[in-house]
Amino acid sequence: MNKISMRTFFLVCFLVISILSLTPIQAEQFKSTGTIDAYFSPNGGCTEAIVKELNNAKMEILVQAYSFTSKPIAKALIDAKKRGIKIEVILDKSQQSQKYSAADFVAHAGIPTYIDSVHAIAHNKIMIIDRSTLITGSFNFTKAAEENNAENLLIMKGNKPLVDRYIQNFNEHKGHSEQYVGR
After folding, report:
1. Which of 75, 79, 81, 130 is catalytic?
2. Longest pairwise C-alpha distance within the chain
3. CATH number, residue 113
4. 143 in catalytic set
5. Is the residue at 49 inside a domain?
């Protein structure tokens, strides 16, 4: 190939790769509405903020968690269940065998618990409360995340389109997850 056709070849390859790399992206943009509170750990009040939101739930709590060993969060979920709040939990497959997983605790309390084993890791860390509050971030629902790790947590309220998208994603994962009854 001569210099001109080589340059043309690389230009065409660059354009094709650029177009192809943009095509499969299905990111959605959501207009910033409502409020967003940010928390950071270690010892930044993430667990306390989550428990406060769970204690204020009126109708429903949806949870997706990779690692879930926090006793205060598990207790707040069970207290919500006792108040008549509908709760569903989807956990990573590692939670079936973890020695200190809250999976058994919540499943034995009658909270529908599911294991998402379709993915290498079900790494979501979200809670959706009353279809209006979204909790997400790097923060695992664990004591270590609160006390030892550098983590972040966002609590977003008042952005219905964003919350609805997370509910849709929750339902997609629930659809391929298996119910967990505990050990």
Report:
1. 130
2. 76
3. 3.30.870.10
4. no
5. yes
